[in-house]
Amino acid sequence: MNMALRGDEFELARAFEDLRRDGIASIPNFLTDEEFARMGKFVDDAVARRPGAYVGFNGPAEMAGSGLDELGASDRLHSLAERIYEHMTGRPAQRSDFYQVLRCLSGPDVNTHSHFYHYDSYVVTLLVPIRIPTKGKTGDFLLIPNARRYRRSYWRNAVDKVLLDNRISQRVLRFLAERRLPPVRRVKLEPGRMYFFCGYRTIHTNEPCDEDQLRATALFHFANPHAGHSRGPRAKMA
Ligand SMILES: O=C(O)CCC(=O)C(=O)O
Ligand SMILES: [Fe+2]
Question: How far does residue 155's CA lie from ligand 1's centre (Å)?
Fold first, then answer.
């Protein structure tokens, strides 16, 4: 077992139980208070520079100095993602870079960047909530866990995406979510926790928060099974 993970081992075993039951799990206190404060400050500063707009960051260079760049390069996070990958797929993980995103929602753009139900192209999705509103619409995370299997071919995977990325599917899922009907599940995210789920197999998205609030999440996507193929110009999410 990787040394970097030893302290997290107990939490991980428990989290795998949650994952089996709920399709998503989280590890508490994954970040130190200092790490978390630094990420929060980076987000607050970025949003203050562009008030009322959606602010997005792609890749570690764009979030240099936030601590998220260091986290994405750390052995600890790679070990965690690899363990989760092996648990989910039953196959040995290969070391590869994360596809790293930081999403800061506030202002009128909150609706444009919410309720977009999708599968990620990557097997493991790690989600770190940095700022989550505590009042009004809290921007909950919505999911239908493990709605599809792993696809052998890129094209079969692309068909799943087309079947989901159209007006009818999107409206049906939104209708269900807004009425709190199954199979859509809802998670109130808690800052400080590290959430994970199988982004490749799970239909997921976020609800909007109120326009005068801020909802910021960092995503670390790990292991793209169809890595040889370009993501294409229409890819809106990982
Ligand atoms: O911000 C969130 O809660 C989810 C974002 C997401 O699924 C993605 O960026 O792929
Ligand atoms: Fe996603």
Answer: 23
Identify which of 69, 63, 128 has the alpha carbon closest to the alpha carbon of residue 97: 69
Residue spans per domain, the chain: 3-222
Q: Which atom of ligand 1 is nearest to the CA of 118?
A: 7
What is the average pLDDT across 194-216?
97
User: How far apart are the C-alpha atoms of 156 and 148, rounded to whole Å?
Assistant: 11
CATH superfamily of 3-222: q2cbj1_9rhob like domain (2.60.120.620)
pLDDT in tens, 141-160: 999 999 999 999 999 999 99
Does the beta carbon of 215 lie inside 6 Å of ligand 1? no
Distance CA 24, CA 150 (A): 17
Position 6 pLDDT exceeds 80: no
Q: Which ligand has the shortest distance to the CA of 206? A: 1
